[in-house]
Amino acid sequence: MNEEFLAWRSTAPERPYFAFLNYIDAHAPYRPPPPFRNAFSDGDGLYWRTPQGTVTAEEAEALKAAYDEAIAYIDHEIGMLLAELERRGEFDNTVVIVTSDHGEVFGEHGLFGHAQALYLPLIHVPLLVRLPSEASGGTRVIQPVTLRDLAATIVDLARLGESVPFPGISLRGQWNQYQVALAASASPVFAHYNPLLPDGPNPMRSVLVGDKYYIAWEDGREELYDIATDPGEQHDLSDSLATDLPELRKILAAFP
Question: Quick check: 146 pLDDT over 70?
């Protein structure tokens, strides 16, 4: 991935560009090259695509370790890419964004992998924005945001004009103290799941409102968690906080 991108940059005209690099190495079967393979475990790409029977706690930890090894490999490769951009004199004129389309579960709620639920380990993904020359470097934003706003953010950072052809709102106000008013108008944090396979779970949608995380299944089931006190989503509050459900249903219904 790095080699293809850098080769393209070497021959591309000198003009502004947008590049999307999709590192796939953190997907199964989690087999990064040495020295990353087995760096955190004794396994060798241990993976179950559809776990059968009971997965032991030791097996789950080995699987998670293999995943961490794959992420460490990607981290290394991104570092190599940024170092080369700096060597070429391009780094200080480049916005760099690192994010992901999903996470993984390793036994949480009895699940493994991804593409079967909307629990936080699957949708709480990294989002790092490196700007060339702003005083906000090192700022950590704790406010949850949605990747739906990412395209509008890129247009804003690239100063392409006021008319944004994408849905969403720029996230610049989340870290720029002079635009804090914009932060309050960031898009609601919605998520949705549609099964990839015919025998997958029912479709579901979710919304995060404050500390309340609400999941609505197409078959009528509902789940509600207080992620401030229960970040592991172990205690479904849809019965004890049933009075909150009508408003959450209304908010979720507004999601296109």
Answer: yes
Each domain of the chain, given as residue ranges in start order, spans: 2-189
Q: What superfamily does domain 2-189 belong to in CATH?
A: Alkaline Phosphatase, subunit A (3.40.720.10)
Mean pLDDT over each residue of the chain, to the nearest integer: 87
DSSP letters of the chain? Answer: -HHHHHHHHHHS-SS---------TTSTT--PPTTTTTSS-S-SS---SS--SPPPHHHHHHHHHHHHHHHHHHHHHHHHHHHHHHHTT-GGG--EEEE-S---EESGGG-EESSS---HHHH---EEEE-SS-TTTT----S---GGGHHHHHHHHTT--S---SSS--SGGGT-GGGHHHHTTPPPEEEEE--SSTTSPPPEEEEEETTEEEEEETTS-EEEEETTT-TT--S--TTTTGGGHHHHHHHHHT--
Which tokens hold the place of 34?
């040495």
Tens digits of residue pLDDT in 147-166: 999 999 999 888 887 777 88
Read off the pLDDT of residues 66-87 as tens digits, 9 standing for 90 and up: 999 999 999 999 999 999 999 9
Query: Which is more confidently placed, 45 or 7?
Result: 7
pTM for this structure? 0.87
Six token digits for residue 225: 């968690």
Q: Across residues 214-228, what is the average pLDDT?
A: 95
Where residue 196 falls among pLDDT bands split at 50, 70, 90? confident
CA 129, CA 170: separation in Å to the nearest integer? 12
Nearest-Å Rg of the Cα atoms of the chain is: 21
